[in-house]
Amino acid sequence: MPVGTQGTVKTAAPKDLHEAGAEIILGNAYHLYLRPGHTLIRQAGGLHQFMGWDRAILTDSGGYQVLSLADLRKVTDEGVTFQSHLDGSHHLFTPEKVVEIQVALGADIMMCFDEPLPYPASREDASRAARRTADWAERCHQAWKEGPPGPNPDPALFGIVQGSTYPDLRKENVRRLVETDFPGYAVGGLAVGEPESATWEIVEVCAQELPEEKPRYLMGVGYPEDLVEAVGRGMDMFDCVLPTRNGRTGTAFTSQGKVVVKNAAYASDFTPLDPECPCYACTQFSRAYLRHLFNAGEILALRLLTLHNLHFYLGLMGRMREAIQQGGWEAFKQGFLAQYRRAEGGPESQRNQI
Ligand SMILES: [Zn+2]
Questions:
Q1: Is the separation of the CB atoms in 185 and 216 below 8 Å?
Q2: If you ran DSSP here, which 8-state letter would residue 8 be given?
Q3: What pLDDT is stored for residue 348 in this prediction?
Q4: How many A from CA of 20 to the centre of ligand 1?
Q5: DSSP strand pairing (237-238 vs 71-75)
Q6: 50 near 82, Cβ under 8 Å?
Q7: Can you give the residue ranges of every domain in the chain?
Q8: Which pLDDT value is given to residue 56?
Q9: What is the pLDDT of residue 343?
Q10: Can 60 be counted among the known catalytic residues?
Q11: CATH number of 14-240
Q12: Is 108 a catalytic residue?
């Protein structure tokens, strides 16, 4: 899912997202609640109508943003009180409130309110946050089932698994969420600075416990090689700002690895950014031209690299689906990682360096 924080995937119009192959995008409840406000978006007929997007939208619940962006927050079992990072105004998010906001936005998939923790977290803190997250999930479930409808007649609601890097807390948390029974489940609170081995251990623990027939969404991950590793461990859905954010700062993800377009090495490189990519940026322009646009501060550069990176990420997900359907997953995974990492210059993931 390309990330459309403020009701837009930065630099990309909906028709660009169609062309890149996006079927679903992510919107941020916290940002849209603060500006322009969920009631205004509801008046507009919902977020799809407001932003001119005719495919699916998943909205996050704001838990992560409230705990990482907002000023002066206080977490209790009731919810989180915080001050807006925009104007300092005071707000209270409860599980019921974040469902109300997401219903007003008209999301196709809504997320439960959760309490993600930074890494490292003590066992005591992780246990309390996981228990609170499961309690909040029950309240969200009730608000979803019993609350008034919004612009979307039949939104889904996903539970979010927390429990930091403690496998037993994660297992217990999954059991409680599965008891409440959601149409899909997300694994949250990862890719926050923990060692890569801990990420995959927790993903494996969650994948074993989650019901096989329901979608599993790994939140906030990651680099292309991370997506391949995660799919191999049973994850289905992802959101990440990397393709768009890194595109705007001049990094392209290509079939041969990362390309930092601004590098002097590309000054007179008239080959395409990614010779294997059929996107507009790769078929129409050269690396030398893209480098020139970045160096000259031209905004077309941001747009073209965003388009390419989205195309690459969504194309990668499509190729993974195809490999699984055709029974060729292992061969695909080995082939991709060998080619991608060889070009990166080593097996080290860069995921924790941002
Ligand atoms: Zn391309």
A1: yes
A2: S
A3: 42
A4: 9
A5: unpaired
A6: no
A7: 14-240, 245-344
A8: 98
A9: 61
A10: yes
A11: 3.20.20.105
A12: no
